[in-house]
Write a structure and sequence with these properties.
The structure holds 2 protein chains of 2 kinds. By secondary structure, chain A is mainly alpha-helical. Helix content of chain A is 54%, strand content 6%. The radius of gyration of chain A is 17 Å and the shape is elongated. By secondary structure, chain B is an alpha/beta fold. The relative contact order of chain B is 0.14. In chain B, the strands form 3 sheets. Chain B has a 6-stranded mixed β-sheet with strand order 5-6-7-3-8-9, sandwiched between helices. Chain B folds into 2 domains: 3-210, P-loop containing nucleotide triphosphate hydrolases (Rossmann fold, 3-Layer(aba) Sandwich), CATH 3.40.50.300; 217-283, no CATH class. The chains are: A mainly alpha, B alpha/beta. Chain A binds chain B through residues 5-6, 8-13, 38, 41-42, 45-50, 53, 95, 99, 130-133, and chain B through 31-33, 167, 170-171, 173-174, 187, 190-194, 210-212, 214-215, 218, 258-259, 265-267, 269.
Chain lengths: 133, 284
């Protein structure tokens, strides 16, 4: 797991995303244990309270749960997390889509931009640094 | 979370026209690494000295829910200026600490001395500044106390040792202690702190979680002639020849400008946030 301290995304959110991604990519799955707060904090060089905050929220979202004596475990299947992910994507895109619509850009034109980004030609993807997530 | 240090209305004046600390309220929470940032002369060291009872002050400070004098055994402090009995060796210093500090772990101290590659039997007077700092930190980290206070802990250390020290500070809170420290080095603060307070001219002008800065604050770069803002919508405003830079956490203001394609907007990292607070607040 690689954390960017300078990223515009808060560190605890980066941790949350990485955990979800690990499930989506099939590296961990339902009922697998994940590192303890202190292990992960040491591992990725961040403040343990920040890891704790990420885990607390993941627990609230029912993506992980903590079993006394065992640790934190994945509480959701890949499909369920994918569904969540898409829902989040929808939320993130609501504003820009509205904005493009208002500006008179067509659906096909927007899809064209997405297509271009998807194929990695042009655009700077997620590494743009200074932009708002 | 309970407060390990609770400062209410702290005031401290030294002789002269400038007051060192003015009406400072500051809470350090259990289990956090709290970084105190600010330019020289902002009042960071005076605040720390007040917590430790090294200076007279007006206002209220409780430490671990009590008076500092009844809590000294549970606190360790590393000052910016480290003074030692220069005739001692690290070995002798460890022995001395063991005899006077109730919670001192001798074996841990010897481990740290080794880990920091300090010569066990060389006199401290022959040590470089960095070596003295390393030894001071080694002795401090071996105390197993509830609250660690550091004034510029990594100043003068080489990058490898600095890394060690930052990791140890982090492990300290994993063990349940609390850390308050001052620093000039923003990248270090970003790595280990969870909350920061910014001091300027004797005031605490900001306290908050690092992640909350990214979540709540935005920086707008606007044309120089932009005037559609008020002081209560902004935290800092900086004007130069080319542009107007506004730091804000005002939701309405952010909403209004966010969708304007002409406006450049960024999420501040700590460096930008700190710089804007430092240089842009006077114009608000």
């Amino acid at each position: 797991m690689k954390i960017e301290l300078r990223s515009p995304l808060p560190v605890y959110k980066q941790i949350k995303i990485k955990v979800k991604e690990a499930v989506l990519q099939g590296r961990i799955s339902l009922d697998d244990t994940i590192p303890s707060i202190r292990e992960l904090a040491r591992d990725i060089n961040v403040n343990p309270n920040t890891v704790a905050r990420a885990y607390r929220e993941l627990e609230k979202e029912k993506i992980i749960f903590s079993r006394p004596g065992v640790g934190y475990m994945i509480n959701m299947s890949r499909d369920q997390i994918k569904e969540r992910f898409l829902k989040e994507l929808e939320n993130e895109l609501t504003r820009p889509v509205k904005r493009f619509k208002k500006a008179g850009i067509s659906k096909d034109e927007v899809l064209g931009v997405i297509e271009k980004l998807w194929n990695g030609s042009g655009g700077e993807g997620s590494g743009s640094g200074g932009q708002v997530p | 979370m309970s407060e390990v240090v609770n400062i209410k209305k702290l005031n401290k004046a030294y002789p002269g026209p400038v007051q060192a600390v003015r009406n400072v309220d500051l809470q350090i929470k259990q289990g956090e690494v709290h970084a105190l940032l600010g330019p020289n002369g902002a009042g960071k060291t005076t605040t720390i000295k007040s917590i430790l009872g090294f200076v007279n002050y007006s206002g209220n400070i409780s430490v671990l829910n009590g008076d500092i004098d009844s809590r000294r055994d549970r606190i360790a402090f590393v000052p910016e200026e480290k003074s030692f009995y220069e005739f001692l060796t690290p070995k002798g210093a460890v022995r001395l600490c063991e005899s006077i500090l109730p919670s001192f772990d001798k074996n841990l101290a010897l481990d740290y001395v080794k880990r920091f590659s300090l010569p066990m039997n060389k006199k401290i007077r022959e040590f470089s500044h960095g070596m003295k700092t390393s030894l001071y930190l080694a002795l401090t980290f071996s105390q197993g106390v509830d609250l660690y206070i550091f004034d510029e802990p990594t100043w003068g250390l080489d990058p490898i040792r600095r890394d060690d020290v930052l990791n140890i500070i982090r492990n300290t809170i994993i063990e349940g202690s609390t850390v308050l420290y001052t620093s000039h080095i923003i990248s270090e603060v970003e790595r280990i702190a969870d909350r920061v307070s910014i001091m300027m001219d004797g005031h605490v002008v900001f306290t908050g979680y690092l992640d909350d800065i990214k979540e709540r604050f935005r920086v707008f770069y606007l044309p120089v002639d932009f005037t559609d803002y008020s002081a209560d919508q902004t935290e800092a405003v900086l004007k130069d020849r080319e542009k107007l830079t506004i730091l804000t956490r005002n939701v309405d203001f952010i909403d209004k400008l966010e969708d304007d394609p002409q406006v450049e907007i960024t999420v501040p990292d700590l460096e930008l946030f700190f710089q804007l607070f430092l240089r842009g607040r006077q114009y608000v």
